């Protein structure tokens, strides 16, 4: 009788252990089911990509990485992304100037509420700008600064080395005020059949390459420098492009800032 009771108790223990193990495995399986995932995990699994955000970031594919990051941040924060166009009077003014043509296309592609542009142009050399007007820029540099660093105005007035030093100073001052601002450099408009000015522009291009600064060489879209046709793209006094020149300059920049799938 004693042996029977012992066997019965052992059998009960085995049964209890098996039943408990089955119950535990069932609980584990249940906790791993999708309906029992944590809220954060379910959000991670179910959160689809935002197609409008993807579309906008795709348009900015050509931009510097830092600018794309700021654009994405602007989208997440529901604020405007500001592009500051900075340079000499060769930027032009009025509805047919390339800054206005670029602005219209940017706002059409990205949305008026997202992209804000402002133009700061001065009839100054780079040295005069640094000494007299740089505070205008430092008040609100913007997220991206498209900078024509007074290269034409400096020609014959400020040495190339000094002009590049002024450029570096402007970027340094802006970065100290707003580390997230990004610079893109570009030359002023080309001129017909000149000797020294193209050399200054070439040094600007080399400087940008050596310092890993994005450089938009819109001269590639214009006629050759020694082609008489170039005169049609310039204002009579060569101070800025003609309407035709503004269109060429604008189209080049539009193609860069608004990437379109081929």
Structure characteristics:
10% strand, 10 helices, disordered N terminus, 262 residues, alpha/beta, five-stranded parallel β-sheet, globular, 53% helix
Q: What is shown here, in short?
A:
The protein is α/β, with parallel strands linked by helices. It has helices spanning 2-31, 39-46, 51-59, 65-77, 98-110, 126-139, 151-154, 160-177, 196-210, 243-257, and strands at residues 81-88, 115-122, 144-147, 182-185, 214-215.
How is this structure best described in words?
- By secondary structure, the chain is α/β, with parallel strands linked by helices.
- It is built from 10 helices and 5 strands, in the order H-H-H-H-E-H-E-H-E-H-H-E-H-E-H.
- The protein has helices at 2-31, 39-46, 51-59, 65-77, 98-110, 126-139, 151-154, 160-177, 196-210, 243-257, and strands at 81-88, 115-122, 144-147, 182-185, 214-215.
- It has a 5-stranded parallel β-sheet with strand order 2-1-3-4-5, with helices on both faces.
- Helix 5 (98-110) runs parallel beside helix 10 (243-257) and helix 6 (126-139) packs parallel to helix 8.
- The model is unreliable at 1-47 (pLDDT under 50).
């Amino acid at each position: 009788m004693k042996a029977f009771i012992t066997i019965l108790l052992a059998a009960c223990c085995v049964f209890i252990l098996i039943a408990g193990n089955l119950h535990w495995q069932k609980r584990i399986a249940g906790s791993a089911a999708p309906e029992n995932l944590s809220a954060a995990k379910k959000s991670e699994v179910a959160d689809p990509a935002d197609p409008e955000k993807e579309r906008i970031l795709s348009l900015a594919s050509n931009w510097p990485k830092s600018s794309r990051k700021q654009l994405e941040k602007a989208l997440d924060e529901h604020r405007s992304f500001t592009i500051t166009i900075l340079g000499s009077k060769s930027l032009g003014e009025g509805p047919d100037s390339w800054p206005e043509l670029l602005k219209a296309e940017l706002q059409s592609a990205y949305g008026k509420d997202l992209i804000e542009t402002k133009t700061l142009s001065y009839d100054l050399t780079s040295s005069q700008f640094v000494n007299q007007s740089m505070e205008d820029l430092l008040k609100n540099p913007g997220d991206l600064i498209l900078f024509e660093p007074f290269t034409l105005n400096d020609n014959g007035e400020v040495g190339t080395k000094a002009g590049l030093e002024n450029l570096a100073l402007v970027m340094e001052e802006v970065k100290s005020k707003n580390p997230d601002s990004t610079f893109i450099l570009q030359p002023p408009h080309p001129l017909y059949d000149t000797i020294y000015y193209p050399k200054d522009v070439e040094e600007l291009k080399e400087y940008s390459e050596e310092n890993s600064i994005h450089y938009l060489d819109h001269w590639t879209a214009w006629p050759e420098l020694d082609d008489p046709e170039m005169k049609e793209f310039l204002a009579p006094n060569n101070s800025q492009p003609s309407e035709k020149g503004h269109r060429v300059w604008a189209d080049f920049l539009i193609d860069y800032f608004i990437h379109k799938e081929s």
